[in-house]
Design brief:
about 375 residues, alpha/beta, Rossmann fold, 7-stranded parallel beta sheet, 19 strands, about 25% helix, globular, disordered N terminus
Length: about 375
């Protein structure tokens, strides 16, 4: 059932408003989730933490990543089969990595975090599930020397599951569970086939895995109308409207395999593959997932500074949900899908940091911390 190819879970846009100009700037989703505000208030940057980006690779020559790509590993046949060359000729992985940790032309959510490029999608943007499994195995073996605390998986199949019991004794699910038990957060895009599946709640594989942090997508601004190749259409857009392509799964439908958090995912301008200053704009739950990856890196940094260790993944998810912004699917969405009329939770990094601080103060673990 799962023996098929994987791909990035975003879809090309048929119609979009152009975005002009480059230069030093935060990825525009930063404003909605208040990431820069949290970085300034709590003195956070993602420094001394590392994210493994499992994707089409990364443009390692881009100024946004200078001196912070600490390793590359390639499980595809691209780049002459060189296992240490994860160069990206597709663009998806570079855009995703920039959202997390760009720090020059663009400013990502966690701009000083280290990055590992794990190329498990080829330059066409596809690959077998075996490559995901191999990538996760490599991360498990190398997480300690590289200090990997977050894994970003902006990819998936085209399924629409409501529970992970259907996966059985799946190797990828088991490895995600092992990383979870080691306090490594595996963040996975929920999928972009809500329209395709006739507005039925659910998520793609492997986002349906309960041990991961699953992420749906909202718009972050008034951007006009968009039509997607899947057939989904947003007739108009505004902050906190769920994108018509984003798969979603409410706790009342699946208590343990719900969509954990929503974040801005369309359109997102970030790093690109065209040279040292390349730029790209993409749409998808693929772009929402790295926003959450960056936020988790900041929260891990905050917690570790106070306590000396990483928080558990379940604790992170609890804090993200407890501090998030409630959004209603169907209050102001203008699209061609059947909205669920249920409330979901959207990421707010500033509120998440404040929530953790209060938790630490209550437990008296924060008393000796001298950080601002």
């Amino acid at each position: 059932m799962l023996n098929k190819e994987i791909k990035p879970v975003d879809r090309p846009v048929q119609r979009a408003r152009p975005r002009f100009g480059i230069g030093i700037r935060a990825v525009e989703v930063d404003v909605l989730v208040r990431a820069s505000e949290a970085r300034a208030r709590y003195n956070l940057s993602g420094a001394d933490h590392c994210v493994a980006v499992m994707d089409t690779g990364i443009n390692a020559k881009h100024v946004d990543f200078k001196d912070r790509i600490v390793a590359q590993v390639n499980f595809t046949n691209d780049n002459g089969g060189d296992k240490k060359n994860a160069d990206d000729k597709h663009g998806h992985g570079t855009n995703v990595a920039g959202i997390i940790a760009a720090n020059k032309d663009h400013i990502g959510i966690a701009p000083r975090a280290n990055i590992i490029a794990v190329k498990i999608l080829d330059n066409s943007g596809e690959g077998p599930f075996e490559w995901i499994n191999n990538g996760l195995e490599w991360i498990l073996k190398n997480r300690v020397p590289h200090n990997i605390s977050v894994v970003c998986m902006s990819l998936g199949g085209s399924q629409n599951f409501q529970d992970d019991a259907i996966l059985g004794d799946d190797e990828i699910k088991k490895k995600i569970g092992t990383l979870n038990s080691l306090d490594v957060a595996v963040v996975i895009a929920a999928g972009n086939d809500f329209y395709t599946h006739e507005s039925e709640e659910g998520m793609a594989y492997p986002a349906i895995t309960r041990e991961c942090v699953s992420v749906g997508a909202v718009y972050d601004n008034v951007e006009g109308a968009f039509s997607y190749l899947s057939g989904a259409v947003a007739f108009s857009t505004a902050p906190d409207r769920i994108t018509p392509f984003s798969q979603r799964l409410h706790p009342t439908t699946s208590e343990f395999c719900r969509t954990d958090i929503f974040a801005p995912g369309a359109p997102v301008t970030s790093s690109g593959i065209n040279g040292e200053h390349g730029e790209s704009t993409q749409h998808g739950t693929s772009q929402a997932a790295p926003v959450v990856c960056g936020a988790i890196l900041l929260l891990q940094e905050f917690y570790r500074r106070a306590c000396g260790n990483l928080p558990g993944v379940s604790e992170l998810v609890k804090w993200l949900r407890a501090s998030g912004i409630s959004i209603h699917d169907g209050d102001d969405e203008k699209d061609n899908v059947q909205n669920t009329e249920k409330n979901y939770i959207r990421l707010d990094v500033m509120r998440a940091c404040g929530h953790i601080q209060r938790q630490l103060e209550v437990s008296e673990l924060f008393a000796n911390d001298k950080s601002p």
